[in-house]
Design brief:
192 residues; alpha+beta; Nucleotide Exchange Factor Grpe, Chain A, domain 2; 3 domains; three-stranded antiparallel beta sheet; 6 strands
Length: 192
């Protein structure tokens, strides 16, 4: 009996071994199948990532081209603005030039100096109104304290009274501002 038991044990061990081998083969096949699925998934992910990279590169190139076009367009607009920026001002001054031409023509035949003076004063007033509409204003100097930001002292004279010390006594050249920016300082004589 002991031989029979040994044979049966051997058979059982063999069967167990065969079962284990069969399971191992099945597991190996499953793992191989899973690896293939994983590889396909990785390949698909790689392909999707490459596609996304291509799309992003395309978007980037388009944005770069769009920005380049914007830069060129704004540069062109800026150049045109610089070249033609004074057009509005010049067009508004043309009527004053027309009035000056008429005044010069009439001065040759005019006998009345007062009428000529009145005409020139009207032209001057019209011209100053046009400049005022463009944002140009005269720097006031009469009885003003000397201010280095808007005045240029060309001479200093002894002040006749104590209250005129440090004040503008005379203006030799009118100063102008354009929208609160000094475009020409007023040349003045200051009291000491």
């Amino acid at each position: 009996m002991s031989e029979e038991l040994k044979n049966e044990e051997q058979k059982e061990q063999q069967e167990t071994q065969e079962t284990l081998n069969a399971q191992a083969e099945t597991d190996t096949e499953k793992e191989a199948g899973q690896d293939t699925e994983k590889e396909l998934t990785v390949e698909e992910k790689l392909e999707a990532a490459n596609k996304e990279i291509e799309e992003l590169n395309d978007k980037l190139l388009r944005k770069i081209a769009e920005f380049d076009n914007y830069r060129k367009r704004t540069l062109k607009e800026k150049t045109e603005l610089i070249l033609n920026g004074g057009e509005k001002t010049i067009v508004s001054i043309l009527p004053v030039i027309d009035d000056m031409e008429r005044a010069l023509k009439n001065m040759k035949n005019a006998d009345d100096v007062a009428a000529v003076l009145e005409g020139v004063e009207l032209i001057y007033k019209k011209f100053m109104d046009i400049l005022g509409k463009q944002g140009v204003s005269v720097i006031e100097t009469k009885d003003a304290d000397f201010n280095v930001d808007i005045h240029e002292a060309i001479a200093q004279l002894p002040a006749p009274t104590e209250e005129l010390k440090g004040k503008v006594m005379d203006c030799t050249l009118t100063g102008y501002k354009l929208n609160d920016k000094v475009i020409r300082h007023a040349q003045v004589v200051v009291g000491l």
